[in-house]
Amino acid sequence: MSSILSELQNGVLILKLNRPDLLNSFDRPMALALQNELDKAQNESQIRAVLLTGMGRAFCAGQDLQEAISSDGPELHRIVKEHYNPIIEKIRNLKKPVVCAVNGVAAGAGANIALACDVVFAAKSSSFIQAFSKIGLIPDSGGTFTLPRLIGFQKASALMMLGDKVSATDAEKMGMIYKVEENEILMETAIETAEKLAKMPTKGLWLTKLALNLSNNNDLTAQLELEEKLQTEAGQTFDYKEGVNAFLEKRKPNFKGE
Ligand code: T3D
Fold first, then answer.
1. Of 111, 165, 176, 190, which residue has the fewest beta carbons closer than 10 angstroms?
2. Mutational pocket test of ligand 1: of 18, 21, 22, the residue with most ligand atoms within 8 Å of the beta carbon
3. Closest among 48, 13, 51, 92 to 255, alpha carbons compared
4. Does the beta carbon of 113 lie inside 6 Å of ligand 1?
């Protein structure tokens, strides 16, 4: 059985982390398999959105610590460079929206992979743990970049040092995630949202994601110039014309992501 389950449904590539006995912790094959799936999502035009979730009771417990200490496993610098860095880059540079359904605990790299996604739902019973400090490591998978931008420097600093378990409800309150959902409706809501995004003008959504990505390093003037450039590009898409025409003709638009 593959460590990533993959299924295309109504334009959405549904990816499920599948090592439930080890709380979906990442070993090298699972990290590389997830990278392959993200490449597939980038390259195949019928895939218009991605949904990431976990099998079993956890979303992901981060790095498989057995693999990390095993003498024949990859060294720590390779784990970061070849496993987690590419996963985060591929999520942030994927030209399609990525929805995450956090179905249980998200710890270490598992938490930061979830937080790199574009729209994050979490089950009420789930939680987020910056577990790295408890084993003498620093937060990776973009955590030191993403978390302070989501919740502010002080809260990020404290959570990273203390390794507190943050409930999904608190995560929503502090702006770490988009929404908390009752456990029973998490998947339904996440699939509905991913399918809705897949039918939207996904080229425009990508340009929005790009503008957000680049806003991290720009001042206001540079960001205004970027918006001008990306808006011009959005205005040249099929979907822009279709959206305006559909509005004027009082009909439902049929977007193609082009
Ligand atoms: O080299 C490097 O490490 C660099 C990479 C760094 C990236 C990282 O992600 S570092 C952070 C690694 N993750 C952790 O430190 C989290 C470790 N796990 C936990 O703290 C707890 O398991 C949880 C808080 C996530 C959940 O607790 P609980 O009580 O619900 O479950 P449990 O009983 O601890 O775990 C269930 C099983 O999963 C258990 O196995 P067993 O006893 O049933 O055979 C446990 O050992 C296994 N498991 C959980 N997390 C991991 C794991 N096995 C390997 N690696 C794990 N990360």
1. 165
2. 22
3. 48
4. no
| DSSP-assigned beta bridge partners for residue 53 | 16, 101
Instruction: Tell me the mean pLDDT in the region 71-90.
Output: 94
DSSP 8-state symbol, 19: -
Cα 67 vs. chain centroid, distance in angstroms?
24
C-alpha–C-alpha distance, residues 107 and 97, integer Å: 23
Please tell me if the CB atom of residue 142 comes closer than 6 angstroms to any atom of ligand 1: no
The alpha carbon of 108 and the centre of ligand 1 are apart by a number of angstroms equal to 9
Domain range 4-198, its CATH number among 3.90.226.10, 3.40.50.2020, 3.20.20.80, 2.60.40.1120: 3.90.226.10
Rounded average pLDDT over 71-94: 95
- Render pLDDT for 86-110 as a digit per residue (tens, 0 to 9): 999 999 999 999 999 999 999 999 9
Tell me how far the alpha carbon of residue 100 lies from the centroid of ligand 1, in angstroms.
Answer: 20
